[in-house]
Amino acid sequence: MLGMVLAVLAGLPTPQDTATLDAPVYANEAYGVSLPRPFSDWVFEPGVGPQTTTVIFHPRATALREQLWGALVLATFPGQVLLRQVVESRLETTWRRRLGRSYALEASDSVSVAGLPAMRTLVSGAIERVAVEVEEYTIARGGDLIVLQLRYPRGLSHDSIAAGYQRVVDGLRIRSGAPPPPPPATGDGDIPTADVVPRTGWEAVAYGARVRYDADELRADFAVRVDLANQGTAATDSVPVWVWPALTVDSVSGAVALQTAHTSPSVLWARLPDSVAPLGNASLTVFYHVTAADQQLLSPEARLSATGAVVAGDWLPRVQPVLDSASQFVQAPRPAISLDFDLPAEWRAVAPGRLTSDAPSMGRRRVTWRSDQVATSGASFVLGPYRIAARPEGDVGVSVWLAPADSPSIATIDSLAASVRTAWRLCARAFGRLPIGEIQVVETPEPGVRGYAGLLLIGHGAGAGAAADAAVDAAYLPALGDLGRELARTWWGNSVAAAGAGSAWISEALPAWMGVAIRGVIEGDSVRQRLVGAADSMWHALPRDLDVPLSRVPVSLTSRDLLRTKGVAGIEAARSAAGDARFREGLLTLAVEHRNGSVALEDVLRALGPEAAAALRSFLF
């Protein structure tokens, strides 16, 4: 829904088939909004679209192409409007795209308009060769979104129109909406389940987590500080916290009362000591633990043992659900993440981001990793008595973390680093360079290759098909296509997150297609065609009850076969329809414009062009 509304907001077209309103005030009774005109010679042109009501006001005798006009846009969302999410998406998907290279963000401030929380942004650039500055006030009222846009042609003195625009802002009247549903009362009352907990205005701004691992008890203890911002429309003192069922919550600091809904995942309702006003801040620290007995509930890829640990699940507490009712990713900003580890003295920790400290302390070891300029969607990490083999040469460094029993040859490590560097370079050519200077490659007992933000987990057996007497080296030389697929997750799922219908296809099929494309670049186009044909055959060989439109495939491990077969076939059909050059240009533009943000299905279709979109629709819908 957000993508649809923002797509409508992007153009702000002149309303069609409506009478010009020459009146001092425009009033919309349905929304309870009224707006004065800036000067007596200005007129309103109201209109109603499929998702929005748009009102343009401008001088009576002035054409809109001169960029001297304002607009009021009214839209309704199915749930609470999250201001920061809407504004950031609008800046990326509307203004940066509309203004191109001339785009500049001059200001972004939290303000209050008509007694409601709002954000003011000021962008500058050129539209149809006319230099312009655009001031926008984005206002939230429950599920209603109100956008007031004011345009200043750069050649016209601000003083000549600023006073009139200020009258518009000061005179905007917005009727108060219905109060949000109250949180559950403390006591023995019913608590909403995870499926019916309403979305709130809380947003996690940053995480600071400390992880202590006990190798004797096979237990990991977590203390996670969550910095919060209230992006809702009303003051509140209750925060819903989603915690996965494998994690046993011990306590919460910063809250005076708790209730728990035993769902999957569980929901804690934390009561803050004081009510937090809109745009206000708060913090909680959640203490919990997991043992080896419960690790299978955390993630199929998680493992806790006396010789190491892999935590690849979504173990951070959330203040909004990760998935919607259709098991698709929910659009949400990614906060900064800092991970501090307390480990046995001979152990190391490896995680996405940047290693900032590693030092012994009182018979144990303290290690810190922090998220860098690429926003990670999660915080997977690996623990164990690792030693490092660094290969810093080239445009990106590669660090290979080896367990004590590992004995690959120097030539094998060099070959692995070269393969990773080649795959990374090809991904950067396809999706744009990322500010990551080093890739971490970690050996784990689990088979296969798994990728995160600049982090590759390579398991024994990754080089399947190698001779038995070469098993040690083969484990460190997985297929280049597998490396490319998992490295591409640094872009799709991390640098660019997916949201809404089709998010599973975006997150899984695009990396899988990149693995095929890399094989084609290295081994020849005939290999690429053979792999695409194999994917198509595997898709058609799947049971018919598993073959559903890609826009409806849920986010789950069981959907990978369909997404890596039908998904790749669909992307290849789009590439053939658009032509290789146009397709790659659209894919690169999509990845760059949505970096550290999220992308929806309509963004993909728009970026790839009408020919590719037409070819994809039979796979998606």
Description:
By secondary structure, this protein is of the alpha+beta class. It folds into 4 domains: 173 residues, Mog1/PsbP, alpha/beta/alpha sandwich (Protein Transport Mog1p, Chain A); 158 residues, tricorn interacting facor f3 domain (Immunoglobulin-like, Sandwich); 104 residues, Neutral Protease Domain 2 (Neutral Protease, domain 2); 125 residues, Neutral Protease Domain 2 (Neutral Protease, domain 2, Orthogonal Bundle). β25 and β26 form a beta hairpin. It starts with a helix and ends with a helix.
Describe this protein with a few key phrases.
globular; Immunoglobulin-like; 31 strands; 4 domains; Protein Transport Mog1p, Chain A; seven-stranded mixed β-sheet; alpha+beta; seven-stranded antiparallel β-sheet; 13 helices; 621 residues; Neutral Protease, domain 2; single chain
Fold blueprint:
Elements: H1 2-11, E1 25-28, E2 33-36, E3 42-48, E4 52-59, E5 70-76, H2 83-99, E6 104-113, E7 116-127, E8 130-141, E9 144-153, H3 158-171, E10 173-174, E11 202-214, E12 219-230, E13 236-243, E14 248-253, E15 257-261, E16 266-276, E17 281-291, H4 295-298, E18 303-305, E19 308-311, E20 336-344, E21 348-350, E22 354-361, E23 364-370, E24 381-384, E25 387-391, E26 397-402, H5 410-431, E27 438-444, E28 449-452, E29 455-459, H6 471-474, H7 480-487, E30 496-498, H8 503-523, H9 525-541, H10 560-578, H11 580-593, E31 597-599, H12 601-608, H13 610-620
Parallel strand pairs: 11-20, 26-27, 27-29, 30-31
Antiparallel strand pairs: 1-2, 2-10, 3-4, 4-5, 5-9, 6-7, 7-8, 8-9, 11-12, 12-17, 13-16, 14-17, 15-16, 18-19, 19-24, 20-23, 21-24, 22-23, 25-26, 28-29
